[in-house]
Design brief:
Type II secretion system F family protein; about 85% helix; mainly alpha; transmembrane helix; about 300 residues
Length: about 300
Amino acid sequence: MILQMAAGALIGLGFLLLIWVLAKPAPGVGATLARLDAGRRSQRSATTSAAGSRLEARIDGMRDGIGGRIEAEALARGINLDATRTNLAVMNRSMASHLGLKVLLALAALVWFPIVLSAVGISVVGLPAIGVIAAVVLAFMLPDMTLRREADARRADFRHVMGSFLDLVAMNLAGGRGLPEALMAASSIGDHWAMVRIRQALSNARIMGMTPWEGIADLGKELGVDELRDLASALALAGDEGAKIRTSLMARSDSMRRKELVEVEGAAGESSQTMLLAQLLMCTAFLIFLAYPAIQELGGA
């Protein structure tokens, strides 16, 4: 009964997806602009990789083709996936590649999980059928979970570099440079990916006739880094009202370092607690191992 219900649910889901794909709604202006903007970001964020084997090239092409179709259908219906798009911008990946990977992993789980169950002698009925569905769902969500974890780690790395960037800007301001020149000179020191992204944002802002802090604000919005948007607001005030920006930047840098130190100390404390718990479990298991023969003898007596 459970197998029939699961099979019916899968068939109904397939028909629903088929109708969803074939019934193309007329996209509005907002959806069209979002699709064009997403395409622009994907072209800007995508990086060329080294040529691999033909099989890898075919798999990559199939993945990007499937992901591009899903992305186009989602954008036509006003589904922007802003959180995922922000994480992909941090990792410098395209949305089409990410969506295609999700679909391919789900299909792989749907094919290989029943084969593994059959190989170990388990019939795909009842609970194993539910396990297959759970494996498909987990495989589909796995790229999102991995992407979120990697993006958070990369943002933490960006904030670490941003403290040094603020110190460099303050030093350039102390040397007599103007604010736009100080920002560009500070971002030109080093080839770390965070410095490169800041330098690209400043260069794009200059080409498009925007102020440097507007470019920094756009970068903060694209990467989901609130500290960049706060910095852009402070720089805008300095450019308009002539605030003491050098002192403000140094104070902001010190604040970011103290916050980072607190986070590191908190992570170290959590690791220590985890190690202590693991040691207690090992000691408990060892005591049970030592006491088991005596308990067995008492039970036999």
